[in-house]
Amino acid sequence: DKTPVTLLGLGAMGTALARAWLAAGHSATVWNRTPARADALAAEGARTADSAAAAVAAGPLVVVCLLDDASVGEVLADADLAGKDVVNLTTCTPGQARTRAAWARERGARYLDGGIMAVPPMIGQPEAGGYVFYSGSCELFDRHREVLAVPAGTAYAGADPGSAALHDVALLSAMYGMFAGVTHAFALIRREDVDPAEFAGLLADWLTAMIPMVHGVAAELGVGGESEEDASSLAMQVAGTPTFLDTARQQGVSPELLTPYFELMRRCLAERTGEGAPRSMVDLLLG
Ligand code: NDP
After folding, report:
1. Which CATH superfamily is domain 5-159 in?
2. Are 279 and 225 spatial neighbours (Cβ–Cβ below 8 Å)?
């Protein structure tokens, strides 16, 4: 028989997760602070619990998908976690995940932390490529590997419970850097006679062509890593920054998304000659 799943938190993500398990034939007990959000799932076969504690008591595997770490503490405060397998898919910091793992272990639970690399429409759609980083109890991960693979792919990031959150936040941080650049690029063309849809195609192709450069950064950061032949030297790039800032000014666009990165490039050139630029840029951020 398929493992029953308890799910606490029926926001956009929790609802998508519950739906995926129900569709795969798992029985599901759900709870949400605002009970009405469970109505649609109840109609699809989920059992609803009157309290979080009752939902936890209903089965061995408890999945939590709430807004933040504070809400996890509130919701689980009165639940008996002894002997439970707790999978926390609430986005949090690595430090919060480690503290939450110790907190759960003190209450007799096994604990796995998760960072979801997907948006709700990708849940239960394997071909969409979404997956979840998991870290913490390897025993729990192995025991429930198939259940966890129902809503999205799985990637075990290690026994340190903070590791999933660290990977999650690192990937999302890079995404925000990319969105910053995209926002600036569209602002530059906003008042001009440029078709945004056509421009989007050019932009997506350009970013795709640049993406493999992340492997070059990794090669430099690796043991004995060497900088590659400098086809685009840092000195050349720093010399070019006024072109970008002047263009922004001419287009009436605030340079606020560009200047922090340019500042780091300039600092790197001034302070760290003779080292590979990407490595020194990364190391400069470490202080
Ligand atoms: P929503 O804002 O849609 O839902 C938030 C949920 O948390 C609701 O169930 C809400 O209950 C509950 N909640 C908030 N505060 C409390 C509290 N103090 N006590 C009890 N319950 C509380 O968020 P999502 O479902 O989108 O996100 C949930 C988690 O999934 C987040 O950590 C998010 O970072 C993560 N995630 C979301 C993604 C997305 O694209 N949506 C992508 C990847 C990760 P109520 O209905 O009563 O308000």
Report:
1. NAD(P)-binding Rossmann-like Domain (3.40.50.720)
2. yes
